[in-house]
Structures are given as C-alpha cells and as structure tokens.
Prior knowledge:
Blueprint: H1 8-21, H2 25-38, H3 42-53, H4 59-76, H5 79-82, H6 85-98, H7 102-117, E1 125-129, E2 138-139, E3 156-159, H8 162-171, E4 179-185, E5 190-191, E6 207-210, E7 214-220, H9 228-240
Antiparallel strand pairs: 1-4, 2-7, 3-6, 4-7, 5-6
Amino acid sequence: MEFSPFNKIVKLCLQGMELEDKGKPEEASKLFHQGWVEATNDLEKFLTAHYISRHQNTVSDKLNWLETALGFALKVNDDAVKSAFPSLYSNIAKCYEDLNNLGKAKKNSDLAISYKLNPSDKGPFYHGTKANLQIDDFLTAGSNSNYKSELKMKHIYFTALLNGAGLAAALAKGNGKERVYIIEPTGSFENDPNLTDKKFPGNPTRSYRSEVPLRIIGEVTDWISPRPEELQKFREKLENSKGEIIN
C-alpha cells in the first residue's frame, strides 16, 4: 500500500501537524479525529491513531491509541509501515513502564530493538549518483555529503524507491550523467535516521544506510527525473533546513 502525500487523510494529518507547530493542539487533535472517522483503510487508521495518541491526557489513553495504531500497522504488512515498529513498540514500552507493568514494558522494548536491528525491506534497492560505475563495482562510505559538502559521511545511502534514487542522482555533486544503479547490500543496514519517524511514523521514503559497501548489480534507465522546478524547490528546502544531518 503506497504512501501518498495527496491522500485526503494524509493531508488532514499534515494540516494537524502544522497546527501543532503553531501551538494549537486542540485544533490539531480535532483534525486527527476527523481523519480517524473518515479513514477507509488500515494505513489511514494507523496514521490517524498514531497522531491521536500524542494528544491524550493520561498514560492509559495514550497506550490505548498506540496499541490501536500498532494493530492497524500490523494489518498493512508494508515495509514502509513496518519501519515504524521500533518507535511504536518503544512508546508502548514507555507507557507500560509508567504504569509499572515491567513485564510488558520489557517485552515491547525487546521487540523495538529487534525491529530496529532487522529492517524487513528486501528491495530491490537503488542508489542515485553522477558517477560512471560498472557491474560488480562497490559503493563505499566516506564521500562528502551532497547536502553539506564539509561533512564526510560514515555511511552509504540507498532507497527502495526508484524515483527517490532519481532525485538523489539529480542532487549529486559533479557534472556527469545522472545514473540510478541497482545495488545489493553486502551486510547489515538500517533505516535512515534523517528521514525515519520525522513528520510521519516509520520510513515512508524507504531510505536506508549502511557502513558496509553496496555492490552494483545493474542499472535502471527508465526512471523519472524530477522537473527543474521540483528540483529547485527541493534544493531551497535543503538550504533553509536548520536540522543537523545524523551521521
């Protein structure tokens, strides 16, 4: 089930988050509840329950909404949603700890660690760049960031979304041809913490990173390059971002 920013319920959640940022929690809560009532599938129910949980006045009520969100997330069976499990289980564990139910707190904490260390996504995976590479070449960590040139990256990044890799290729440094390679991780990897559990729960962009090399196993040529105006907007957003890159 694909996450879409054009979805009606997603738009309501975005509006609710804007109200939260403006210090209007009651109005935000009303929008999240509206989304809950109007939700028509498990993904929409999961999202709205997640946001409603943030506006509860008691630990028990917060726990109830978090477990409701988890229940719908389990039904979705989608890798982007499964990436929300570490934070969901962690928040549930914290509620049980506050309620002095240490057994359930530990059980949920252990589940959070398990999902964090073992992303379920099986790909295929892609990496966007302007480098001219060959099959069986390896991509390694240690390059300068595309977003902060003075920062040497400790990880190599990739995604399971083809057009997301296309955007990365367009933003990559250099004057070479934009390329999207099919890659294979040679070891463990994790959800990209710069994008996971930010505005939306989980990792809807299916973005990952690894400290070990990525092997190139193919190249895609039919991906969609972002339009110049879209690329400019994204660059402006990056330039105006005040957040630090988690390296």
